Amino acid sequence: MKPLSRFGFCIALIAAVASCQSFEGAFSVDRDMEAAKMAGPPSGAFNAALQEQYVTVAQREYDESDWEHAGLFARKATAAGNGEQVEPEDPGNWKLSEQDAGELSAARGQLLLALDDNGRTTAPGDAAEAQANFDCWVQEQELLNEGFQEDDIAYCRDRFEAALARVQEAIAPEPEPEAVAIIAPAPEPVARDYLVYFDFDKHNVRADAASILDRVGEAIDETGATSVSLVGHTDTMGSPEYNQILSVERADSVRDYLKSKGVDAEITASGVGESDPRVPTPDQVAEQENRNVQIRID
Q1: pLDDT at 3 over 60
Q2: Do the Cβ atoms of 107 and 167 come closer than 8 Å?
Q3: Strands of 227-232's sheet in order across
Q4: Residue 46 in contact with residue 124, Cβ under 8 Å?
Q5: How far apart are CA 164 and CA 289, in angstroms?
Q6: Beta strand segments in 118-179, E
Q7: Among the four residues 167, 184, 188, 203, which has the most C-beta atoms within 10 Å?
Q8: Rounded CA gap, 64 and 138, in Å?
Q9: Out of 3.30.70.270, 3.30.300.30, 3.30.1330.60, 3.40.50.10790, which CATH number does the structure's domain 192-297 have?
Q10: Contact status, residue 141 vs residue 96, Cβ threshold 8 Å
């Protein structure tokens, strides 16, 4: 047999390494998939449904031989099955166009509002379906940068939007009863709390935050509030000194937006940096939940 040339030997070696890596990835994700299906049972209807939804998404990726993302969703299914709090993916951690990142960040904000407004307990199945398909949408949208998967993007996005709409309908307040002859006195102004999110290392007001701040302005007018407190927060990425400055800049941006909309109540803006996170994390963790400004009107 004629010996292989040096070039031929290199080609064969590269092919062998790639084959081993593919085998190793498939073997690893098989273990993740098995763990995802065997975890639990979790306590609570939401985590049980979330485990099932993530297993479904992971299986779809597995059937397409996408070991990386099948493993990601399988591990999230395992965490849900073990009773852990599993958060939806942060678009800031994915390779997305600026337009796609903005759209997905706004969608994540609406999802978190619905989940935090008793969505997990009021409509656990729909809430879990919305979260898992949001993550699926983020993952498929990243692949669009390579020029394909448009049908998969639409599939995940449509299922997310339909499930989120059902959650929002389930948590919507009951309609006011019909007016009666008795005229009740006007209610006293009450304090109300709001939360707006920011992109990683940014302090500009996003489109989804602007929509919420418009509602804050309306609430101030309706309740007759005279003061507004703004407290900025950051995640733990970067130094504490830098994050303190960034948190104040975020609060200042919210104050400036409210002033531009004609709010004449007294507004105090301050920041606490990374010292009081909404979701506790280790140092140097990029967490969307902690990049926010908390708003209270009185």
Answers
A1: no
A2: no
A3: 192-197, 292-297, 227-232, 266-271
A4: yes
A5: 19
A6: none
A7: 167
A8: 17
A9: 3.30.1330.60
A10: yes
Domain ranges of the chain: 25-171, 192-297
CA atoms of 40 and 33, how far apart (whole Å)? 14
CA distance 94 to 100: 10
d(CA 123, CA 96): 30
pTM greater than 0.85: no
CA distance 253 to 205: 7
For 9-18, how does the pLDDT look when each residue is reduced to its tens digit (9 = 90+)? 444 444 443 3
Q: What are phi and psi of 142, to 5 degrees?
A: -60, -40
Mean pLDDT rounded to a whole number for the chain: 87
Query: pLDDT of 203-246, one tens digit each?
Result: 999 999 999 999 999 999 988 899 999 999 999 999 999 999 99
Q: Which of 167, 160, 219 is nearest to 194 (CA)?
A: 219
